[in-house]
Design brief:
CATH class of the largest domain in chain C: Alpha Beta
Shape of chain C: elongated
Chains: A mainly alpha (184), B mainly alpha (354), C alpha/beta (825)
Strand content of chain B: under 5%
Strand content of chain C: 5-15%
Number of domains of chain B: 2
Radius of gyration of chain B: 22 Å
Shape of chain B: globular
Low-confidence stretches of chain B: none
Number of domains of chain C: 2
Mean pLDDT of chain B: 86
Helix content of chain C: 55-70%
Structural class of chain C: alpha/beta
Largest interface: B-C, 43 and 77 residues
Order of helices and strands of chain B: EHHHHHHHHHHHHHHHHHHH
Distance between the termini of chain B: 57 Å
Structural class of chain B: mainly alpha
Number of helices of chain B: 19
Oligomer: heterotrimer
Radius of gyration of chain C: 43 Å
CATH superfamily of the largest domain in chain C: NADH-ubiquinone oxidoreductase 51kDa subunit
CATH topology of the largest domain in chain C: Rossmann fold
Strand order of the largest sheet of chain C: 1-15-14-19-17-18
Helix content of chain B: 55-70%
Number of strands of chain B: 1
């Protein structure tokens, strides 16, 4: 008899708690950022496609689905570390296939060479190239992410990637780079 | 001609960490002198041994970690740890106690956590507690003050006791500790504690020969010596006044309340101040910046907490003295204290203030 | 409110947290009068000397300027003009090293003085009460006055605040060691300084004016007290000497016991602060109409024999001043602009004095230890907390330092890194000798940079998403359009109207084009076989952008290999060349043999094909540009082009009509074209266009031909590539060019010209021969043409006219076969 009571009591308690938990999970559901969104926030948004995906968001989605985390060349080690932290995996060195040089650059069209073919315009992931057929094109430097994608399609090789110049505005207090004048 | 490039500020008050450490070491001299005067050569031998061993240990670890050896080895922090450990050990503790303690302090407590500036615990106190728990017998073999000894203890005798356990005459440590009356001598704190458990009042315990006229023969002077050293450090601004003040005040208040409530079972406030390692703790251990709190408010809380813990452990704990335990517990609390005592930055949270 | 003044009158001041007492070293210069320096040989005037944007330069190299003449103009309050400090000639406007910790260069105007020091015309205004507030503000702005205490904030912006001002604080604290410029200025020019204060009083109408001055300047205090004795609301506040009491926020705390909330200007508390030197400059500008062209600079340090304060012109190179003070020549020079606590090292002594330069420090090695003489002495932080004790902003420097080393930007922001005023007190006291301030500066720069990057990334993301959306939209729109157009066409074709006819002929033309293309492709195949494989690879990979980069690299590599193989290739090409040369030679001959006629026919056919190809490409070009216009119109244009072509053919055909009835097929086609012409008015217009189109096509063909020739001679220049690319945008063409690039060795302009001339000659000849060729070719075609006709009818028996067109295409194909046959022979 007592055994049955015990079972009943426990059963009721279990049912109660089960109901409570079920209610809580529905009522207090936390709408967290989906993993892909969080990953996307970590990526540098250059939309360069060096990872093999057409943009940062697709790569973020791929990483969320198990793609290697070390394919973002513009982000470099820092980004890999952040992704590793978020995903809870080991930090990996940058994929060897990618260039490790991630100094910020901006594309520049050598205007006298431009034939106005619009190929670079089509390639630009952020619509940062201005121009139309048979007219000279130009880069909107402020919008350029330095992704490199316009360089390859250019039939006359008139696009160069120029590293961003250091100005007094963006100087990083690197005293060792100050050119010291050596007199005699 | 070349131009120098440097970041401002270009001038510096020219103080150095090693200078600070040296100053603290000098400040221990009056206390050590009193210790030597009342307890003989034991502690000096331990200090000397500890210094040798910490330097060797530090050298070894720094080489392994491929750090710059010279500046770190002689920055004085390791030597200070050795001095503090040597002071805290019982004068007649065997030689291997010092070796184990020193190695533990430097290798485990200091360097394994990242070296100077990164250790969460005071190395000397951590080592002391480790020894006390691991080797309770050796670590409680407190030697009575010289005037109470039946045997005249010379430097050679002490040396022999530490290294072999016997004097050249063949007396063991145990024999030396035994009073002419046949009683084993303990520290004043220990005596009081034991007597209270035996049902004696504090007043009765105060009549014990070890207590002497005031708060314990020798011990009162040793504490006075460290107080003197501490005051010297305060005038030199090598340590901040907050921690010692709040520690001593807190200990005073706790013992005072207890004394008011039950004078028979509680020792006087001054007894608490001038026995055990109170002054050493107040001025030399708790003020260790690395393992302490940083802000003024934080230091006040840190010191007060230490005072409370010292009193509680002395009164209710299993060990007679409590400074080492209190210090370690406070070290643990320090990051938390720091977290909650951040000063209000200029121009922030003005509404709260008004 | 009143209590503050009472307290000040009693000499009680609040305290800010922390602070230090570094050795003052003011005695070096404080007792010597201000000297005036001569005019240097060259003045370097940075265009931007303040916080904000540079003014627009209004002078040019070679201009002669007078003293006080504006060199740049401002259009906004944050732009400030600069002025010529003396008369002379502008020798250059170029980048030069500016006084900035980075040692970077910015645009500077360089003046070579004529040493006559001729003033521009000035209007003295003895009483500022005669001027309206706006006039005074304008004068201040036009004089280019920026805060002269160090930060360089435009003064006009600061004093034109609309907030109600309780306190105007005149900052004469000068807490940095060594600097005595303000001290001396008060001692020697207190009336002018007071005038400046009065002007500010007039502008801002504050309740009280507090002059904050540290108690180590006895003479200046005395002078000030005497001068202001009869003005009730000006209080000279003698505050205890402590660094950094001259900091704006710190001085406000000392004098008013108020804290400026983080991220807010003091004017929100009803407080405006001005530097003594700025007051002097304001008075000079308003009363004497003198722009900010000179200032007092303390030139001090034990490396100088005669340290002193100097009236120096803006733009004077620092080296000129140190020389004036007898700089002891040393192996290593250390020049600091600003004080020892907050100044920065200069990378050379040609850096000019600017508006905010108050001190040039030339310390001896014993005085300020060289950072390079001993190497860095930094050791681990022991958390001693001395830095936190002295921090005037009540920050936790040691925690900031850990976070800065760990690059934990979030934590740094949480610890209020941006409230750090970089006074250097923490680094000054640090027993571990950690360059704390430097860590903070780097961290601040990094955080700022990161913020910019974040903004940029966000923008890029938005743009990327927008672009994706747009492409998607366009794709759908295009699909929709295609569907609609197809439906419309079908409906019209079935309707049987004259328009339908047009449609049909357009379809016919399109079909013909497709056929021709096929034929072309087969010939192309022929060509491609002889070309390196890389071309194929390149072409097929074209679409994959990522792969493309790799392909490019490969192509480049292959190009190198191709160049190696060049010799072999040239051999082949030379044989071709020979053949062609012989052909053209033969063509010179008027008497035409059978074989020759065949060859000629082949050439003519190739010509026609090329024409067609060019037209095709034109076609695709128009498709490209008119992607948004409807399909219908496109079809019409295509029809027009096809018709034009047909017309051209018809001319040739008509000549031979009498003799050869077989040509009827072509004739028929022409007739149909004419039919179409007659039936549709629109097409009429199109036909006029077609003339132009034809011309264009011919030009294209010429170029095509020239290219082919040039290729044969393997002398295609890059210029040609460009011209070609410009003339025809079709992807195929570019591919061919890409092939050409791989094939082309070093180009020669002369050869190109030759090739072009040859092409033109050949073309003319080919044209002449085209008619004859057709004559000869036709009999051969006749039987097969019938067969083709049958096949064509089988394909679409209803549309006889379309069939005719198809038949013509077939004929062309046959011609191509004929073309092949001589090659095979």
């Amino acid at each position: 008899m007592s055994a049955i009571i015990a079972i009943l009591v426990l059963g009721v308690i279990a049912a109660l708690f089960g109901a409570l938990l079920g209610y809580a999970s529905v009522q207090f559901k936390v709408e967290g950022d989906p993993l892909a969104e969080q990953l996307d926030a970590l990526l540098p948004q250059t939309q360069c496609g060096q990872c093999g995906y057409p943009g940062c968001k697709p790569y973020a989605e791929a990483v969320a689905n198990g793609e290697a985390i070390n394919k973002c060349a513009p982000g470099g080690e820092d980004t890999i570390k952040k992704i590793a932290d978020l995903m809870g995996v080991e930090v990996q060195p940058l994929d060897e296939n990618h260039e490790t040089d991630n100094t910020p650059k901006v594309a520049f069209i050598i205007e006298e060479d431009c034939i106005g073919c619009t190929k670079c315009i089509q390639a630009c992931p952020v619509d940062a190239i201005l121009g139309t057929t048979k007219q000279m094109h130009t880069i909107i430097a402020d919008e350029c992410t330095g992704c490199d994608l316009c360089v390859a399609p250019c039939p006359v090789d008139c696009i160069e990637m120029i590293p961003l110049a250091t100005t007094t505005q963006n100087w990083q207090w690197d005293l060792s780079t100050i050119p010291v004048v050596q007199i005699d | 001609m070349a131009f120098w490039i440097a970041s401002s500020p270009h001038n510096h008050q020219q103080s150095e960490t090693s200078g600070l450490m040296r100053l603290v070491i000098y400040a221990t001299i009056p206390g050590i002198f009193a210790q030597w005067y009342f307890f003989g050569w034991g502690n000096l031998i331990h200090i000397a041994m500890a210094i040798t061993i910490v330097l060797v240990a530090e050298f070894a670890v720094l080489s392994l970690r491929e750090k710059k050896i010279r500046p770190q080895l002689f920055d004085g922090s390791a030597i200070l740890t050795a001095v503090l450990l040597g002071i805290s050990l019982p004068a007649l503790a065997p030689w291997w106690i010092t070796i184990i303690g020193s190695l533990f302090a430097i290798i485990v407590v200091k360097q394994l956590y990242g070296g100077l500036g990164h250790n969460p615990f005071n190395p000397a106190m951590a080592a002391y507690v480790m020894l006390l728990i691991s080797f309770p017998v050796q670590m409680t073999q407190w030697q009575p003050p010289l005037p109470l000894l039946a045997i005249d203890l010379q430097f050679a005798d002490t040396l022999s006791l530490i290294f072999s356990g016997y004097t050249p005459q063949g007396y063991s440590v145990e024999q030396i500790r035994t009073h002419v009356d046949g009683f084993t001598m303990a520290t004043p704190l220990d005596t009081v504690k034991t007597n209270i458990t035996l049902g004696l009042t504090v007043v009765e315990s105060m009549e014990s020969p070890i207590i002497g006229k005031h708060f314990g023969i020798g011990w009162e002077w040793i504490n006075a010596g460290f107080l003197l050293g501490g005051l010297f450090l305060l005038t030199k601004k090598a340590i901040h006044w907050t921690t010692p003040l709040s520690f001593l005040t807190s200990l005073f208040i706790c013992s005072f309340i207890a004394f008011i409530l039950s004078p028979d079972s509680s020792a006087s406030t001054m007894f608490h101040w001038f026995s055990g390692a109170t002054m050493l703790g107040a001025f030399f251990i708790l003020t260790d910046p690395v393992s302490g709190a940083t802000s003024v408010k934080g230091r006040l809380i840190f010191g007060a907490l230490a005072g409370l813990l010292v009193y509680l452990i002395r009164k209710f704990g299993g060990y007679p003295d409590a400074v080492a335990f209190a210090v370690l517990l406070c070290n643990m609390a320090a990051p938390l204290i720091d977290q909650y005592t951040r000063p209000r930055t200029y121009g922030h949270n003005l509404g709260v203030k008004k | 409110m009143e209590s503050v003044i009472e307290r000040i009158q009693k000499g009680h001041f609040s305290h800010f947290h922390g602070g230090i007492h570094p050795p003052e070293q003011k005695f070096l210069t404080s007792t010597k009068p201000i000297a005036s320096a001569q005019i240097p040989e060259q003045l370097i005037i940075p265009v931007r000397q303040h916080i904000g944007q540079a003014g627009d330069i209004i002078v040019a190299v070679g201009d002669k300027v007078l003293k006080g003449q504006a060199l740049s103009a401002s259009n906004s309050p944050m732009q400030l003009p600069v002025h010529a400090p003396t008369s002379g000639i502008i020798s250059a406007i170029e980048n030069a090293v500016i006084p900035h910790p980075s040692g970077l260069s910015e645009l500077c105007i360089i003046i070579t003085p004529d040493h006559e020091d001729t003033w521009r015309k000035r209007t003295i205004c003895p009483d500022h009460h005669l001027l309206s507030k706006d006039q005074i503000l304008e004068k201040i702005a036009n004089s280019g006055i920026a805060g002269m205490g160090g930060a360089g904030f435009p003064t006009q912006v600061k004093v034109s605040t609309l907030a109600k001002i309780n306190y105007l604080i005149i900052n004469a604290a000068e807490c940095e060691p060594y600097i005595t410029a303000d001290d001396l200025l008060i001692q020697e020019h207190s009336p002018t300084v007071l005038d400046g204060i009065k002007i500010l009083d007039h502008l801002l109408a504050p309740k009280n004016i507090l002059i904050g001055i540290e108690d180590n300047k006895a003479k200046a205090i005395e002078t000030l007290q005497k001068a202001t004795a009869d003005i009730a609301h000006i209080h000279v506040c003698v505050i205890p000497t402590k660094y950094p009491s001259g900091g704006e926020k710190q001085l406000i705390k000392i004098l008013t016991n108020q804290e400026v909330p983080s991220g807010v200007l003091p004017s929100s508390l009803g407080i405006v602060m001005q530097n003594v030197a700025t007051c002097f400059a304001i008075a000079d500008a308003v009363i004497n109409d003198t722009p900010l062209i000179k200032r007092v600079v303390t030139v001090s340090g034990q490396a100088l024999d005669k340290p002193q304060n100097i009236w120096s012109l803006i733009g004077t190179p620092v080296g000129f001043l140190t020389q004036h003070c007898d700089y002891k020549n040393r192996q290593h020079k250390h020049l600091i602009m600003g004080g020892p606590m907050m100044g920065f090292s200069l990378s050379n002594d040609q850096i000019p004095v600017i508006k905010s330069t108050n001190c040039i420090l030339a310390p001896s090695e014993a005085e300020i230890e060289s950072p390079y003489s001993t190497g860095t002495k930094e050791v681990e932080c022991i958390r001693c907390g001395q830095c936190a004790d002295v921090c005037p902003a009540q920050l936790l420097p040691q925690e900031l330092q850990w976070s800065a080393k760990a690059k934990d930007q979030q934590q740094l922001t949480k610890l209020n890194l941006f409230d750090c005023i970089e006074c250097g007190a923490c680094a000054y006291v640090c027993p571990s000798q950690i360059p704390l301030v430097h860590y903070y500066r780097v961290a601040k720069a990094e955080i700022r940079q990161q913020k910019l990057l974040d903004i940029k990334a966000e923008k890029a993301k938005v743009r990327f998403e927008a672009r994706k959306e747009r492409l998607e939209r366009e794709k759908i729109a295009r699909a929709e359009k295609h569907k609609k157009a197809a439906e419309a066409r079908k409906a019209r074709m079935n309707s049987g109207t004259s328009e339908a006819k047009t449609e049909k002929s357009a379809v016919a033309a399109a079909l013909a084009r497709v056929k021709a293309k096929k034929a072309q492709a087969s010939t192309d195949d022929h060509k491609i076989n002889s070309e390196p494989e890389s071309t194929n690879e390149q072409a097929s990979d074209k679409k994959d952008q990522v792969a493309n980069a790799i392909a490019r690299a490969k192509a480049k590599k292959l190009a190198k290999q191709a160049q190696l193989k060049e010799g072999q290739a040239t051999e082949n090409l030379t044989t071709d060349n020979d053949k062609e040369a012989s052909i053209s030679a033969k063509l010179d001959n008027v008497t035409v043999s059978d074989k020759k006629a065949k060859v000629a026919a082949a050439i003519a056919k190739a010509k026609a094909k090329k024409l067609q190809q060019a037209e095709n490409s034109n076609d695709s070009l128009s498709t490209d540009t008119q992607a948004k216009s409807d399909e219908d119109k496109k079809a019409k244009v295509a029809a027009a082009v096809a018709k034009a072509k047909a017309k051209a053919k018809a001319k040739a055909a008509e000549r031979t009509q009498d003799d050869k009835p077989d040509v009827l097929v072509a004739n028929d086609n022409v007739a149909s074209a004419i039919d179409v012409d007659a039936s549709s008015a629109k097409i009429d217009i199109a036909s006029t266009q077609s003339a132009a189109e034809l011309k264009k096509a011919r030009i294209a063909a010429t170029i095509e031909k020239a290219k082919a020739k040039a290729k044969a001679k393997s002398s295609l220049t890059e210029e040609t590539i460009k011209t070609e690319a410009k003339s025809s945008l079709a992807e195929e063409t570019i591919k061919t060019e890409a092939t050409a690039i791989t094939e082309a060795p070093i180009p020669g302009a002369a050869e190109l010209k030759k090739a072009k001339v040859a092409a033109a000659v050949a073309k003319a000849k080919a044209k002449k021969l085209a008619a004859q060729a057709q004559k000869v070719a036709e009999p051969e075609n006749s039987e097969q043409g019938d067969d083709d006709n049958v096949i064509a009818s089988a394909t679409d028996s209803k549309k006889a006219r379309i069939a005719a067109a198809v038949a013509k295409a077939k004929a062309k194909k046959l011609a191509a076969d004929t073309n092949k046959s001589p090659t095979s022979e």
